Amino acid sequence: MLRRHLLLAPALLAPGLARAQAAAWRPNRAVTMVVPYAAGGGTDIVGREFAQLLSQRLGQTVVVDNRGGAGGNIGTQHVIRNARPDGYTFLYAVSSNIVINPHVYRTAEREDPARVLIPAGILANYQYILVGNPRFPATNLAELIALARQRPGEITFSHSGTGGNNHLAGKLLARMAGIDLSDVAYRGTAPALMDAVSGTVQFNISSPPPAIPLVREGQLRPIAVTGAQRSPAFPDVPTVAEQGLAGYAVTGWHGLFYPPGTPDGPVAALRAAASEIAALPAFHEKLGRDGLEPLTAPVTPEAFARQVREEHAFWQRTIPELGIRLE
């Protein structure tokens, strides 16, 4: 359903020309990387690790500019509207900023980032995990679905915000399984998980990093992961699709984007540097600690842009069916 191969800009540089232009353009002052979330969160932590490695390759400081709020919309729109297209400002995004938010936050004042931003590289993939309170009687997805059918609307899951990937993962699961689940949105992942631990809600849908210690300590029980394949962070936990919902997959990625109008030289330079960093074993190790999945093979700019287009189109169709919208 969601595959990891996508695009945006119709005409992309030939590889040889891209390398030549990357070599020709070098920044002569600090570069700003906008992270559309608050400092200290999962996206910010991985982004700062990338920024350090990028600084070494560019020979200039990479300044992290945190502009959180509205599910990543504030920082994303800042890059679209206010960043000078000179190669010195780019966006460190997660997939929801680019392919989901345009269909959730639908107002005339916001521009669609998937249509105007220039994709400069994908760095990592990730998926989500369903974790239940240990006292919740469902120990696998089939039992959860059966229980929800017996008690429609009474089984509740928590998530870190309406319209986010983990919220959509739960809504899509309910629709595909033909069940009625209730959900509660929290201001962040930590309180959403804690209410699953306490039993205030029956289960949570979380990104792996904050869930890993709670599962290891026995405070939460893993039920399923949302990717097309099992998560390296939870190799013994079957996917939703493995447990009966064929075709189900909700995943995300970390990627880089330039504001519209940025010249080819800076775009090619960032693409080349990002490709090198994404292949580093040391970067893979950092991603693994953070519960992310390193790229197993290089992803071309064409493939990444195609992935963006396809995921954008999928959520454009699916979000109205799930009845989710924010103003």
CATH-defined superfamily of the largest domain:
Bordetella uptake gene, domain 1
Strands ordered across the widest β-sheet: 2-1-3-10-4-11
In CATH, the architecture of the largest domain is: 3-Layer(aba) Sandwich
> How many β-strand stretches?
11
Q: What class, by secondary structure content?
A: alpha/beta
Low-confidence runs: 1-15
CATH domain class name of the largest domain:
Alpha Beta
Strand content: 15-25%
The amount of helix comes to 40-55%
Order of helices and strands: HEHEHEHHEEHEHEHEHEEHHEH
| Major sheet details | 6 strands, mixed
Pfam family, one: TctC
InterPro entries: BUG, Bug_dom1
Keywords: Signal
Protein name: Tripartite tricarboxylate transporter substrate binding protein
Question: How does this structure look, described?
Answer:
This protein is α/β, with parallel strands linked by helices and 327 residues long. The chain folds into two domains: 15-126 and 252-322, D-Maltodextrin-Binding Protein, domain 2; 129-225, 3-Layer(aba) Sandwich (D-Maltodextrin-Binding Protein, domain 2). It contains twelve helices and eleven strands. The chain has helices at residues 15-24, 42-58, 73-81, 95-104, 113-116, 141-150, 165-177, 189-198, 208-216, 264-278, 281-289, 301-322; strands at 31-35, 62-66, 89-94, 118-127, 129-132, 156-159, 182-185, 203-206, 221-225, 251-258, 293-294. The strands form two sheets. It has a six-stranded mixed β-sheet, sandwiched between helices. A five-stranded mixed β-sheet has the order 7-6-8-5-9, with helices on both faces. Helix 1 crosses helix 10 and helix 4 (95-104) packs parallel to helix 12 (301-322). The model is unreliable at 1-15 (pLDDT under 50). It holds the Pfam family TctC.
